[in-house]
Amino acid sequence: MTNILGISAYYHDxxxxxxxxxxxIAAAQEERFSRKKHDSRxxxxxxxxxxxxGGLDLAGIDFIVFYDKPLIKFERLLETYLAYAPxxxxxxxxxxxxxxxxxxxxxxxxxxxxxxxxxxxxTALPPLLFAAHHQSHAASAFYPSPFEKAAVLCMDGVGxxxxxxxxxxxxxxxxxxxxxxxxxxxxLLYSAFTYYTGFKVNSGEYKLMGLAPYGEPKYVDVxxxxxxxxxxxxxxxxxxxxxxxxxGLTMTNGKFDRxxxxxxxxxxxxxxxxxxxxxxxxxxxTEEVILRLGKTIRQESGCxxxxxxxxxxxxxxxxxxxxREGPFRDIWIQPAAGDAGGAIGxxxxxxxxxxxxxxKVCNTDRMRGSYLGPQFSETDIKHYLxxxxxxxxxxxxxxxxxxxxxxxxxxxxxxxxxxxxxxGPRALxxxxxxxxxxxxxxQSVMNLKIKYRESFRPFAPAVPVERVSAYFDLxxxxxxxxxxxxxxxxxxxxTTAEQERLFGIEKLNIxxxxxxxxxxxxxxxxxxxxxxxxxxxxxxxLCEFERQxxxxxxxNTSFNVRGEPIVCSPEDAxxxxxxxxxxxxxxxxxxxxxxxxxxxxxxxSWQKEYELD
Length: 613
What we know:
The protein is of the alpha/beta class and about 625 residues long.
């Protein structure tokens, strides 16, 4: 039996993963334990959880692997500063102390941290290996996928040098084909527009994607003429005269501001039509790049299947178009496509490539629905609730599913805490907040009173996999909420000529379908399919909701408030429940009504706990 511990840390979204004989046993992000969103620190708590889940201590680990090669990254940093000198000297001075203190000697830092966890000398630790950043992404995409042979596309901000890389996956081998290097990066281009429209880089990109349908693609030609030299084959170069990220402390510069008619939007200030049009334009350009790259990869590799990872692979609108319009029979996207997933990829790379072990392929995939985090026993939950003086009913499954379905049909909002926590940025029915998608007021209620977030942001539908094609133009599973698909024509509501003339955020409150709370302004939805095998409890609830209402779809959004990581423990869930206007909480088989609880926090100072994302 071979146990491999994968670690991602020190940039953003630190995580740990345990792989045993090629099977993913456990994986979790550090943020879920530390309660600091996108926590980049050494993932001590995530490692401790993985070891607990695997029933071993660090002495039982055969190999530890880091998802990145810091010395090559340092080489890129130095070469970039030399290439742009004397520009960027301030940025150089800001970056150097961190590198010289921690990152340049990362092997020593990692060994110190691991020795502290194990309470042993560094010399007693298992062998420490390093995988390349895009190798970790590619491994996380291909090895758990359901394909025996596939092309792999990795796109992110930047790894060591690569920003876009293409691989051929076959059996237990990944062969690099070609790459585009820093500073030419589709991920950083998208992040530059995230910054410019007033959202936070490395966390607000999905807001830019959600904002895009409210705008018009007015700036596509400007982007393609001035910022991005896009070739017919999908390869590209950026005009660095407009960007500051290679040498400065911001993403864009004054020349960029002049091109788009003003300075970046101040965070939290009102959104104007300009921001919506800019969002739509960069989204359209991103989709075009990905579609062109898809055609090229298909021609060059001859592969009928494509796997995706890297932060750009979280762009589920582009993924949906690639699936519908691209040249591949099917695509598979790593659910933790960002840096957190690199922990899984690095561990799988050691198993299959370093140790040359064969790969098992199954019909679905080998991510276990991404339910790879901690779960809590009934005893754990009861003990915590009793310690808080909480009022609850313990009911059987036979009562729980009909009761929760009935409450949902009455427009109640319910916290749903069941089984193992999800790995990756999406709540997939383990740590979710649920609502009735038929309600025209539910999107507004859940955004403003539960999540405390921007009103324009859409919610995702969850639907049993066997019922998905009855509601959406999608003929296959989408278990990880990474595909946007159009609603079926028969469920749409036609808009009037007057409504068609509305612009921007005015479009928000027009009901567009029989499921208004999950239908975006362009009649699309970010679909999650629920499988009876991977999440039997959520599947049972959806089926019961359909039995009562004739609708098999529920709103599924992450169990947290804005700026807070998704809840991990019963304590996190109860605290979030009490701080919001959620109506009920289902913690395993314990059902809690808000009106029955002891008084919660009287003031709202807790909102300062979480930095806005």
